[in-house]
Specification:
Blueprint: E1 6-9, H1 15-26, E2 30-33, E3 38-41, E4 51-54, H2 57-65, E5 74-77, H3 80-88, H4 102-109, E6 117-123, H5 128-136, E7 140-150, H6 157-163, E8 169-172, H7 175-187, H8 191-199, E9 202-205, H9 208-216, H10 230-241
Parallel strand pairs: 1-2, 1-8, 4-5, 4-6, 6-7, 8-9
Antiparallel strand pairs: 3-7
Helix pairs in contact: 2-3, 4-5, 6-8, 7-8, 7-9
């Protein structure tokens, strides 16, 4: 049953990992928290643009702490978590795409940005799909790196568990969590064994880009939720893994 589903989660070591653990507990799974991302703020703030694009809750929070606000810019957020954080900061969110991806935002904005200045503020690992797509739509794009994403020291217990066949599920929330998981596995000398262990388990990816990154490394992704949220990912992965295991 689902109590036996040991599910690795790789969210940053802040309230996100805490909420992820609580959610997995509520689903009857056994959480294996193994943060694969740590945030190093750069202290930068966006330049002025007719459109400002924010891609993460983390970015919003850093800008709010710095006292930044979007002014008269059209504020665009990828996904509900980013938009909710922006509203909590007191900002008006003007645009949220139906598809919570870089490609989805490009499709959403493309008809309106020809000749416009667009400021993209995000991490150092943002996808070129967004900036290239906006430029192709005729926008004058500038990018500001708000924070760097690094792998925390000591990360990787989940890789050892996967290599030993002790995980039933793994929940990847970005391409970088996949890369950092594999780097941690390699440092422990268990990269191939960890991949084999994941392929005997249920692997969840939050969206197509994360799935594609996993697949490029030989990891078979079982679950991609319809909605690109951690909640949807966790529910789908645990429900998929649970029937496989019996008392």
């Amino acid at each position: 049953m689902s109590q036996q589903v040991r599910a690795a989660v790789f969210r940053p070591d802040d309230d996100r990992i805490e909420r992820a653990v609580e959610l997995l507990d509520s689903l009857g799974a056994t959480p294996v928290p193994d943060p694969m991302l740590a945030i190093e703020p750069t202290g930068a703030t966006p330049e002025t643009g007719e459109f400002v694009v924010l891609t993460s809750k983390t970015g919003v929070e850093l800008l709010d702490e710095a006292g930044w606000n979007p002014g008269d810019a059209v504020l665009c957020c990828i996904g509900p978590a980013t938009a909710d954080a922006a509203r909590e900061a007191g900002w008006t969110v003007d645009r949220v795409p139906d598809e919570y991806t870089s490609a989805g935002l490009v499709e959403h904005l493309a008809p309106d940005v020809d000749g416009a200045t667009v400021e993209v503020a995000r991490s150092d690992h943002g996808s070129a799909v967004l900036t290239d797509g906006l430029r192709d739509a005729g926008a004058d794009v500038h990018e500001t790196v708000l924070y760097r994403l690094v792998r925390p020291e000591g990360a990787g217990k989940s890789a050892e568990m996967a290599a030993a066949g002790d995980l039933e599920a793994a929940l990847f929330t970005s391409s970088l969590t996949v890369e950092h998981f594999l780097d941690a596995a390699a440092e422990r000398g268990v990269r191939e064994e960890a991949i084999a262990g994941l392929n005997d388990a249920v692997v969840g990816a939050i969206g197509p880009p994360t799935r594609d990154t996993a697949a490029s490394h030989g990891i078979d992704v079982t679950v991609v939720p319809d909605e690109a949220t951690f909640e949807a990912l966790a529910v789908a992965a645990v429900e998929t893994a649970a029937p496989t295991y019996h008392e």
